[in-house]
Design brief:
Chains A, B: It comes from Algivirga pacifica. The structure is a homodimer. Chain A is of the alpha+beta class. Chain A has 4 helices and 6 strands. In chain A, about 30% of the residues lie in helices and about 25% in strands. The first copy, chain A, starts with a helix and ends in a 5-residue tail after the last strand. Chain A binds a DNA duplex (30 and 30 nucleotides) through α4.
Chain lengths: ~130, ~130
Amino acid sequence: MDEQKLENRNIKPTPIRILVLRTLLNSSVALSLSDIEMVLERADKATLYRTLKTFEEKKLIHSIDDGTGAVKYAICEENCECKPQDQHIHFHCVKCKETYCLSHAKIPQTKVPSGFKADSVNMVYRGTCASCS
Amino acid sequence: MDEQKLENRNIKPTPIRILVLRTLLNSSVALSLSDIEMVLERADKATLYRTLKTFEEKKLIHSIDDGTGAVKYAICEENCECKPQDQHIHFHCVKCKETYCLSHAKIPQTKVPSGFKADSVNMVYRGTCASCS
DNA sequence: TCATAACTGCAACTGTTTAACATAAAAATC
DNA sequence: GATTTTTATGTTAAACAGTTGCAGTTATGA
């Protein structure tokens, strides 16, 4: 169940958290804080904000910076540790404004200059998705 | 000269534009609108904003979304067209908060799902830079 | 010269993110 | 079970990035 998913990541399964989790699970695209706020009208924005922070911290979800000004969130895969080698590419469609996880497209590993240490990576294509072209 | 750089990209070389260009040329890291605003105290934020938009449109500079909430800008290479194959990786240091162009590290070409068409790509590592580790 | 276009400055406004503080609920301790 | 402590939520509002409208100024071109 969904509650189990939260407990697996050491997150106490409160009602709101379950709702947020389900909202993300039901979505085929990544959602911003305001997107979630519109779906869950009852819940307070600050609570949702903190819920997402908690989820991200516990690596239940990952955040995507798609250049729209609003960070989007999507569910991580089962054993994701959000390390560069775990992470996948995202695609932002400039027509429908949706951001998709390309879950099968892992981000290629590249070298970074000596002395630099990469903890995570964000890779987003911008263009037109299949439905919009 | 710097004015020539603007004219090469079909940008009329006004005083402010020359100042913004020089600010970016003098910087070893990518700069946000507010960064530039602090350096050029005289200039108005809206003017700087539109200047950066113009520069980006004319492909004199490129923008980087480094996850900090503020878009950063840096000078493009000479004949850059800002196509995915032109673009390079960026690195954001979470300690010093600076964002570096890894100009020699081109972004690896990957496939996108059929029907999708990528116009540009943003790839940013987050971690610790050489000076901070 | 005069009309037009381009650029700049000022002000205001939107939207996202975040903090401060108070309250409520849950968990732990006695 | 009552009390303390922790954790989660709600309310409010501030901070900040990005953006637009409008007026004034400067440059351009007929």
